[in-house]
Amino acid sequence: MTSIFRTAMGAGFDRLHPQLRRRFSVGLVSGEACTGRGVMDRIWHGGAFVKPFLALGGTRNILVPRAGRAVPFVIENVPYTDSFGRETVTFVRTFDLPGGARRFDAQMVLGPGGDRVIDYLGTHQHLATDLYLHAEADGSLLIRSGVHRFREGVVDARVPDLIGASAEVRESYDDATGRFRIRVRVVNRYFGPLFGYEGSFTATYSDVRDRDVRPGLRPVREEARA
Known about the structure:
mainly beta; 14-stranded antiparallel sheet; 3 helices; 14 strands; about 50% strand; globular
């Protein structure tokens, strides 16, 4: 057994920078969680038309409804078993923005075929998307999103391209500074760039084998459908 990220990437996982391999080895097998603390150099938004969607998403900790520069942040990657028996790793980002902290929540599980990771977004996991992970030639990690799906009660629908978006995440490790670098870009096919951020952080690891996930880190509602 191994981490959900190593399983999804297969042999490509070994081409990652050693620090990225450790960071994405967090899981129930390793018994480790990872906490990153750093600064977002920039959190940006697209045109004014994006703001209502970001505000709505912000009510469920999806995306970040405010822009900013030099924003302190924390990312918590903690493994646990969800209510459906699946290994899950939290990706909870807290941004210390003027006027109050904002969170961007996600929980990741291994896809049914074992070749991708499913990313459930927000406090209620209403949105799910497939993530495809690839090791770049320089040892960095490239993550691209697939189709978005909306799930609520009996509703199970693909999010139309007109209002949906694709995400690209690049994470690397800078040996000179001893910091991870992260860049996220979310783009709509028709309207262009919607949202993104870029910055750097350091990581610490902790043993979670004898501890439960701290209160507030798990979602309010969990979704069984992949």
